[in-house]
Each structure stands twice: as structure tokens, then as C-alpha cells.
């Protein structure tokens, strides 16, 4: 033996990204599973119309009317008098508050109008109706554009 030190191993200066990729893939799967669950509200089939979406940044209050004509404020089932009382309390706090009304397309027009009257009776004047955009098959204007001039 010559007295020179023996070098046992060398340092690796590369970053191992495999654990990072594993964690990111797990997070991606978690978000893909939870995203549909986070969608707010009661399930209703909205009528399809052409209109632009309204901008909004604060907490939204959504009144939903189901096919069975049950009324919900966000996720809480209420009767019309209860809805008016709750919205009156909201209107006292913020008179400029906007309410979004979602009604199943099978709900009679009269039920929608009674609900709107209950919202107005609470002192809320800013009511928006929520709809779905039409599919291309239901939109005659889009079919005309595809065909071109005659």
C-alpha cells in the first residue's frame, strides 16, 4: 500500500425529479376528481339561450328551482316565505346584492314569477336569470354561418 487515500464514491450534483413528478401526478389526480364535486348548487336543467356571462367577484347567492318545484338558496331548501325572510336580512346588510335565479326548464312560468316576486318582496332589485348557451345544433344562426351565402 502506498499511503494514498482511497476514494470510495463521488458526489452526484444532479437533482432527482422523480419524487417531484410523483407528487405532482397525485395532486393532478386529486384535483381532477374533486373539481366536478365543487360545482355549486342543486341539479337543474337550465334553458338554453344566447347571452354573454355576467362578471362577478364576490360571494354569489343562487336561488334554484328544481323540476319538483323545490326552492333552494344556494344549497339550503326553503319555502317561499322563508326565502323572503332570509333575502330580506341579506338586503339589509347589502342593498345592492345581486341574486342569481336558476330554474329547471320544466318548471312552470308561474312558479318562476312567484319566486321572483318573493325576491323582490325582500327588497332585492338586482335579479339575474341563469341559462345555458345553446348547442350548435339548436342555434340556427350558427348553421347559416357554416353554410355561407346562398
Which labels suit this protein?
14% strand; 4 helices; single chain; 150 residues; Nucleotidyltransferase, domain 5; five-stranded mixed sheet; alpha/beta
List the helices and strands and how they pair.
Blueprint: H1 18-34, E1 61-65, E2 71-73, E3 76-78, H2 80-93, E4 98-103, H3 109-121, E5 126-129, H4 140-147
Parallel strand pairs: 1-4, 4-5
Antiparallel strand pairs: 1-2, 2-3
Helix pairs in contact: 2-3
Question: What low-confidence regions span 5 or more consecutive residues with pLDDT below 50?
Answer: 142-150
Question: CATH topology of the domain at 61-129, which one?
Answer: Nucleotidyltransferase, domain 5
Largest sheet: 5 strands, mixed
State the end-to-end CA separation: 97 Å
Element order: H for helix, E for strand:
HEEEHEHEH
Structural class: alpha/beta
How many DSSP H or I helices? 4
